[in-house]
Design goal:
The complex is a heterodimer of chains A (about 180) and B (about 100). Chain A is an alpha+beta fold. Chain A has one domain: 2-Layer Sandwich (Alpha-D-Glucose-1,6-Bisphosphate, Chain A, domain 4), CATH 3.30.530.20. Chain A contains three helices and seven strands. In chain A, strands 1-7-6-5-4-3-2 form a seven-stranded antiparallel sheet. In chain A, helix 1 (about 15-20) crosses helix 3. The relative contact order of chain A is 0.21. Chain B is mostly helical. Helix content of chain B is about 70%, strand content about 0%. Chain B has three helices and no strands. Chain B has helices spanning about 10-35, 40-75, 75-85. In chain B, helix 1 (about 10-35) runs antiparallel to helix 2. Classes of the chains: A alpha+beta (about 180), B mainly alpha (about 100).
């Protein structure tokens, strides 16, 4: 099992970050994400919480031995559930891989909360775990590859989302100033 | 705006996304503003939920029927079914501070 975590602040108000969240892709810095689909969305009429289920389609170079050993293809799908809670000003996102999930799971948790009027904290964890009943060396190799891929995507994800937020709110400020 | 996993659904998806994004922007900041007043909060949430349905409901129905067909065609529906059983995620999950096991 591998555990990953990181945290930092975005220099934008919480509401701006959450409005921007739906516009993160397509993104030249995250070119591995090629599709985003909404499968379910509910607005709770009492709490105002919006729950959204999405599927992200990714295309990423996969080592030949993984394709040979586990099957699958370079197209991978991830299921993501998000909760936007305006009362508690909290957004929680959980993502789990669909592809190769019979062999290993990568469960990611993200949370956005305001730290001040103009700053939003981002916390992210991920656990990568091979399921038991597979050959040990292959399981370790698959885990390692998933961790590397996750870390690489987490790194570009931050840069990519910073660009989107910067561009979105910069443009609006410019329009408002005219 | 991101494409759908099915080329045929992309236009329907983008129409729905555009509708949601416009509604969401009008929703979020007032929702935060009334968060401490329970009565106004509930009136607002209910009214906005209905408004979302009225504005984007039809676009959603078309997009949904397209994407569900595509999920089946690509064999993603079985993986989804299993994932939903394993992690229903009906409630928000706090970010764990350490590994679960």
């Amino acid at each position: 099992m591998h555990f990953f975590n990181q945290a930092f602040d975005y220099d934008h108000p919480w509401s701006h970050v959450i409005i921007g969240m739906w516009r993160k892709y397509p993104n030249p810095k995250c070119s591995h994400v090629i599709s985003v689909d909404v499968l379910d969305r509910t607005v709770d009429p009492v709490t105002g919480v919006i729950r959204t289920e999405r599927v992200l389609g990714c295309k990423q170079k996969t080592p030949g031995w993984i394709l040979r050993f586990f099957g699958g293809s370079e197209d991978a799908y991830v299921r993501e559930i998000s909760f936007v809670d305006p009362i508690n000003q909290r957004t929680s996102i959980t993502s789990v891989n669909l592809s190769l999930s019979q062999f290993a799971t990568c469960v990611e948790h993200i949370e956005y909360r305001p730290t001040s009027q103009n700053h939003t904290s981002f916390r992210q964890t991920a656990e990568v775990q091979a399921r038991m009943a597979i050959w040990r060396t292959a399981a370790d190799g698959l885990e390692r590859w998933m961790v590397q891929r996750f870390e690489q995507n987490a790194h570009v994800g931050k840069l990519a989302f910073s660009d989107v937020l910067h561009q979105l709110w910069q443009e609006r400020q410019a329009t408002a100033a005219v | 705006m991101a494409d759908s996993l099915s080329e045929a659904c992309t236009p329907l998806k983008q129409a729905y996304d555009t509708c949601f994004n416009a509604w969401f922007e009008g929703y979020l900041e007032p929702a935060v503003a009334v968060r401490n007043q329970q009565n106004s909060r509930e009136v607002y949430a209910k009214q906005k939920a209905e408004e979302f349905e009225a504005k984007c409901g039809k676009l959603w129905v078309s997009y949904k029927s397209c994407i569900q067909g595509a999920l089946k065609e690509k064999g993603i529906d079985d993986m989804l079914k299993q994932a939903r059983e394993e992690h229903p995620l009906k409630e928000a999950v706090p970010v764990p501070s350490s590994p679960s096991k």
